[in-house]
Amino acid sequence: MSQEPMRGMFPVLVTPFDDQDRIDDDGLRSVVEYNIDAGVHGVVIALATEVMKLTDAERSQVAQVVIDQTRGRVPVVVNTGAASTFATVQYSQQAEDLGATAVMGIPPGADVPADEKKGYFKAISDAVSVPIFVQEAGASLGGALLRQIAEESERVRYAKVENAPPPQKVYEAVQHGGDLVTVFGGASGTYLIEELRRGSQGTMPWPSHPRPFVQVWDHWQAGDETAAREVWEREIAPILRVGGLVHKEILYRKGIIKSPRWRSPQPAPLDDVGQRELDEVCERLGIS
User: Fold this and answer.
1) Can you tell me the distance from the alpha carbon of 213 to that of 186, in angstroms, rounded to the nearest whole number?
2) Is 0.90 topped by the overall pTM?
3) What is the distance between the alpha carbons of residues 16 and 26, in angstroms, rounded to a whole number?
4) pLDDT tens column, 85-128
5) How many CB atoms lie within 10 A of CB 109?
6) Calpha distance 260→19 (Å, rounded)
7) Among 64, 133, 158, 166, which is disulfide-ready with 191 (CB 3.0 to 4.6 Å)?
8) Which residue ranges form the domains of the chain, and what is each CATH number?
């Protein structure tokens, strides 16, 4: 695999479950293959993968299945965040041992001092030999602290920034990160065009409809912002507007997974109007 900096569309995978709440390995492999066939530039195991609902053994199981299925065709980023620095380091080492291309950590909460946050990432950096993503989701670091962390932690070279307002936070991270930190957007790709305008080098969307994200990226790289925005508005925005966690349902309708089941506690279902809106969007986009 190329050692060039990671850039582009890196969908966050979902974990399929059967009717007994067991991980569906074949379904997970199918999700990976579906996204690679769509041309994505990498795949991610993170919060949307329901990692916080998995046992330690299941976290390793999911990572192993995904890494095995990619067969080195695209990078695999594994979120190894935990409530303690010690546990995060352990998960990070395990992910590297399994063959992860990079790991991703979530900063400690807002009430944690900056030195503790820097120490958290320094500990991960000292424990692994793969690149590290800083995921800003909820607990915001800000551009200046992100830069300090990267300067003090050799392996911290990427950031996924999705705190509100995402475009402005991405721009702040880009300005402070300079040539040291490659910044990705997030937030399901909701602000993808605005983030690209501000210097983001990719995003981590849901894996339910990946090809349009790749098309947006390809148009953007070709310098055609108009075409990129048209694809986003036609193919991506309608799904985002439905709201809710509809992405397993979409993968189910496409025949990629056998069940749209989430592990409990499950997200709130769509109301009747939302369900009709999802049906209309799926019909318009040819999702059956």
Assistant:
1) 12
2) yes
3) 9
4) 999 999 999 999 999 999 999 988 878 899 999 999 999 999 99
5) 11
6) 10
7) 166
8) 8-223 (3.20.20.70)
